[in-house]
TrEMBL record:
Domain spans labelled Acyl-CoA dehydrogenase/oxidase C-terminal: 227-371
Pfam families from the UniProt entry: Acyl-CoA_dh_1 (PF00441), Acyl-CoA_dh_M (PF02770), Acyl-CoA_dh_N (PF02771)
Enzyme kind, highest EC tier: oxidoreductase
Acyl-CoA dehydrogenase/oxidase N-terminal domain mapped to chain residues: 9-117
Protein name: Acyl-CoA dehydrogenase TdaE
Organism placement in taxonomy: Bacteria, Pseudomonadati, Pseudomonadota, Alphaproteobacteria, Rhodobacterales
Assigned keywords, A-Z: FAD, Flavoprotein, Oxidoreductase, Plasmid
UniProt family annotation: Belongs to the acyl-CoA dehydrogenase family.
Residue ranges annotated for the Acyl-CoA oxidase/dehydrogenase middle domain, each copy included: 120-215
Species in which this protein is naturally found: Phaeobacter porticola
UniProt cofactor(s): FAD
UniProt GO MF annotations: acyl-CoA dehydrogenase activity; flavin adenine dinucleotide binding
Highest taxon of source: Bacteria
């Protein structure tokens, strides 16, 4: 497990932190209104995607820890979640292709990612949300290894601007089973892309709806085997969950530093407000949350890359910890700054953007359900592998 960045990783982190600092401060203060194509192009030119794409498909063969160092540097300086969420979504697509794509899929789609094209992953249905097994997006087999895709997906990051999409669907007549993953281009016949969503914050992350009306597909569109996509999907999205936790922790770092300085300068009752215990509590709560989110995220990445059985659980814990840190921290910052914090500006923009972490990557309720399910599974497994003597002790009297 990584407990310290290597010299190369520190250099990577510094390089991508510099890219984050190039972003327009005035736009960030009041909230960027459109996708930041300029910074996206800088990230691609700096080799962000080459880090995690295998050499045989155009990458440079580095690993996910190097990419994590780059993401961390960017999160510590960019000051807005929108583009970071775009990076995380694109990283999930790279992982999906690397793990489950055919050679022809890897050559085509990884090449397009290296060229800077945006992808999208369509998971949630308007009627069932992220209850993947209940999806009403259906994949109907036809003759000669062909299929037809029908359904609706919503709240899809990059839907209005993506050039290709990974769609989560279900084989028809398979009840709650038969989850499948398919890849298709944004100009596929039968695919309709809706208008960009109007949201409270993160306006630089374009999201929208997609409708699939008898979209013609063949076996080459399938990512992995038909009907075997659920386990693969969990592996793909788990990476995103831990990264949500990590970027949430680093996004609040510069806000905390500025709040610390403000608290030392702002006086009430003839003393700096930092002398008051309730101000100290707000600052220390943010620090405790940020450190907790960072380190559980590192642990989750280590477990996921090693294939540890508890990895999915730790990834959900990472996401929940990071979300709580950034949302509660943003609220505390607004209170700490008083009326200044409530006025339109950097603090209110940060609060609106931070609230996205309540739902991005799954709600708190969904993740608690996932954590409890993993706990139940691991508990049952531990009882099965216990020695006969221990099993006897575990039986009720």
């Amino acid at each position: 497990m990584h407990l310290e960045w290597t010299p190369e990783q520190r250099q990577t982190r510094t390089a991508f932190a510099a890219i984050g600092k190039m972003a327009d401060r005035d736009e960030l203060r009041l909230g960027r209104r459109a996708f930041d194509q300029q910074t996206w192009d800088r990230l691609s030119a700096a080799g962000l995607w080459r880090m995690i794409v295998p050499r045989e498909f155009g990458g440079d063969g580095r690993d996910w820890w190097g990419f994590t160092a780059a993401l961390e540097g960017l999160a510590a300086t960019l000051r807005t979640p929108g583009l970071l969420l775009s990076v995380i979504a694109q990283a999930g697509m790279v992982r999906a292709l690397d793990l489950y794509g055919s050679d022809s899929q890897k050559r085509e789609y990884l090449g397009r990612i290296l060229n800077g094209e945006l992808s999208a992953t369509a998971i949630a249905d308007p009627d069932t949300g992220t209850d993947v097994r209940a999806t009403s997006s259906l994949l109907t087999p036809g003759p000669n290894e062909t299929f037809r895709l029908n359904g609706v997906k919503y709240n899809i990051a990059h839907a209005p601007v993506a050039s290709f999409i990974l769609v989560v669907c279900k084989l028809s007549d398979h009840g709650r089973e038969g989850i499948s993953l398919v890849l298709l281009d944004a100009d596929s016949p039968g695919l309709t892309i809706g208008a960009q969503d109007r949201k409270l914050g993160n306006l630089d992350l374009p999201t929208g709806q997609m409708r699939f009306d008898d979209v013609p597909l063949h076996y080459g569109h399938l990512l992995g085997e038909p009907g075997a996509g659920l386990r693969n999907l969990v592996n793909i999205v788990s990476m995103g969950r831990l990264y949500y936790g990590l970027v949430a922790a680093w996004l609040i770092e510069p806000m905390l530093a500025e709040a610390f300085d403000f608290s030392q300068k702002r006086t009430t009752f003839d003393v700096p407000i930092i002398e008051h215990q309730y101000i100290q509590k707000k600052l220390t709560d943010i620090r405790i949350g940020a450190e907790s989110a960072k380190w559980v995220s590192y642990a989750a990445l280590h477990q996921l890359l090693c294939g540890a059985p508890e990895a999915a659980m730790t990834c959900s814990i990472s996401k929940l910890t990071g979300a709580a840190t950034i949302v509660e921290g943003a609220m505390d910052l607004m209170k700490l700054y008083g009326s200044k914090g409530y006025h339109e500006g950097e603090i209110t923009t940060f609060l609106r953007d931070a609230l996205a972490f309540c739902s991005v990557g799954g709600t708190e309720e969904m993740h608690r359900r996932n954590i409890f399910g993993q706990m139940t599974r691991l508990h049952a497994k531990s009882k099965k592998t216990a020695s006969p003597a221990i099993q006897k002790d575990l039986q009720p009297a």
